[in-house]
Each structure stands twice: as C-alpha cells, then as structure tokens.
C-alpha cells in the first residue's frame, strides 16, 4: 500500500460551551504536520459526521475496505473530565457493532485537571477496540493540567514540556501509520500465556484450554505465577532499575526474572488469564505488570500483541479489560489487536463450560488471535 492510499480521520468532539482549547489545537496541528506527503485526512466534530464516515464499516452495512482507516481522537475534557459529544459518540460506538473494523487508532486527551485523562482515554480505547479498532503500543497521549508527566521526555529530548507533548503526539501518529508494517505473521508463532489460577477450580483456565484447542500451528509457553514467590515492584530509582535491566533482571529476581522476562522477549503474542478479583486483576498478575518496568527500560514491545481472557463471577469484566489496556498497551507498548479481550461470566467451578454458545465464542476468539499472528 502506497502512502498516498492512507486515510486519517481526526475525531475531535466539539465542546458544548464552545470552549476553544488552544493547547490541544497546537498539539494536533503539530501531529498532522508530521504526516507523510500524500496522506489525506478529514476532521469530524459531531456524532452524525462520525456515523457517516464509518457507515461503510458497519457489520450490517457494506464490507469494509481492504486498506485501514486511521482514527486519531483529539478530545478536550476540560476540568471535569467530561465531553458530552464524545459520550454521545461512545454511546453509538458501543451499540453499533463492528463499525471500526479494519481501523487503527490513537488518542490525544487534553484536560485542565491532573485527573481523568487516563480513565477517559482507556474508556475510549476499550469501546473502539470492541468495535473492531486496533491500537499501537502507547496509544494514548495525555495532556493533564501542568504537563508534569513530560518531565523525563522533555529532559531526554532537550526541550520544554510543551515540546515533549507535541513530540509524543507526532510519535503516536507515526506508530499508527506503521502498525501493519511491524506485525509480521509467522508460520509457527510463539504465544506466552500467563496466569495465577488453580487448575482444579479455575473457570478462566478451563476457558483458555478451550480456546487453545483451536490455536493450531502455534508454539505455547505457559507460566503459572503461583509457582514460586512473586514479589511486587519495590519502586527502585530509575538508575537502579536501569542497572538491573542491563543484566536482564530486576532487584527481586525470582520467577519474573527467570521465566517471564525471557518469555516476553521471545513471544509474538501475550495472553493473560484474568479472573476478576474484586474488580481488579490478581495480585500476582499485577506484580507482573509492575515489574515489567525493568524490562521496559531497555526494550519496547510494539511488535507483540496483547490478548486477555477475563472471567467474572458477577460483573466488572470491562474494568479488568481496561486495566490491561492501560497497564500493558498504554504504558508498556504492547499492541492491542481488535477485540483483544474475551469476557465471560461464570461463578461456580466448571460453570464456564455450561454457558450457551461458549464453544463457538472460544473458537471465534482463537480465530482472532490466529488472524493477527499466524501466516
């Protein structure tokens, strides 16, 4: 596909009070100025315009075009973290089916508070992902009130906080446009599965076995984080973390260093099994996410795909999915393929296998994984 075949849709929900966000406009302009020659873009500011732009990609409408459509959100959430037109858009996206099939997205969130940019961002990403949109690693660029989140980047780039903000937005567009180029499908792709479940009683592990039965032609590595002590991150200084990272380990060592780090570096696809514990991922999986920082200091994971299998006893699977999105895609650069999470509800041991249609849904999820990683 030639560069002049690429199309970018900027989704910039208007603010109901007519407020103009000069900082967001400057950052967006900088990102669009960095587009390669010949890449066209349009801007939509209302739900109605978005519906028209995406109409051809609805699962109930015309078949989506073969070339991807790139979606760049640029959202002003003000001081309260609310943009009413954005929520109108999300209401439609969540109910309209695969309207973003074959799309690749990124999001810039700008606000007047130190809160809400991450929570709003991951909510938008989750909704779009369920609608068929893929996202590159580090798909969220945040602009909180004082831009203090850019101190390290500004120092590394020898610029000010605003310069680092602009650079992050331009970098996001670059990652979006190169998403397909860095994801090489393989004849025998490697899948790393991490869990911390009891095989005798776990509905989540039982669901994985069902999904796995449909993943032909893959090389599996499965690690149970219950085997051996898994310590959480101790919050080392950047210098200490970088020192241990240079040796391929971290301060605490153990299973994470000895088994998980090598598995992550070698894999093409990371699958996390996540039973819902009080609307949070389990402690051992949280420790894994936290201790990925040491590996992340010297490595990036844009070419590795993230999938999640989530089982709740009652509700809250969406909360777990968004934790994976923010912890591993937004923060640790794993890519997020379309419809990355399989979310089910089962309480009693063995109940998962009795759910109507579970065999079909497991196969569909396996097929999505294979479509991303298998030649």
Please, could you describe this protein's structure?
The strands form 2 sheets. Strands 1, 2, 3, 4, 5 and 6 form a 6-stranded parallel sheet that branches. Strand 1 (7-11), helix 1 and strand 2 form a beta-alpha-beta unit. The two termini are 19 Å apart. This protein is of the alpha/beta class and 375 residues long. It has 2 domains: 3-182, Flavodoxin domain (Rossmann fold); 190-373, Rossmann fold (3-Layer(aba) Sandwich), CATH 3.40.50.360. It contains 13 helices and 11 strands. The chain has helices at residues 22-33, 47-54, 84-95, 117-130, 151-157, 161-177, 179-182, 203-212, 238-246, 254-266, 283-296, 317-330, 358-373, and strands at residues 7-11, 40-44, 69-78, 103-111, 133-134, 140-143, 190-195, 219-224, 269-275, 305-312, 341-345. The model is unreliable at 59-65 (pLDDT under 50).
Number of domains: 2
Q: Can you tell me the CATH class of the largest domain?
A: Alpha Beta
What pattern of helices and strands is seen along the backbone?
EHEHEHEHEEHHHEHEHHEHEHEH
Strand runs, count: 11
Describe the SSE topology.
Elements lengths: L6 E5 L10 H12 L6 E5 L2 H8 L14 E10 L5 H12 L7 E9 L5 H14 L2 E2 L5 E4 L7 H7 L3 H17 L1 H4 L7 E6 L7 H10 L6 E6 L13 H9 L7 H13 L2 E7 L7 H14 L8 E8 L4 H14 L10 E5 L12 H16 L2
Parallel strand pairs: 1-2, 1-3, 3-4, 4-5, 4-6, 7-8, 7-9, 9-10, 10-11
Helix pairs in contact: 1-6, 4-12, 5-6, 8-13, 9-11
Which descriptors would you attach to this protein?
single chain; 375 residues; alpha/beta; Rossmann fold; 2 domains; 6-stranded parallel sheet; 5-stranded parallel sheet; 13 helices; 40% helix; globular
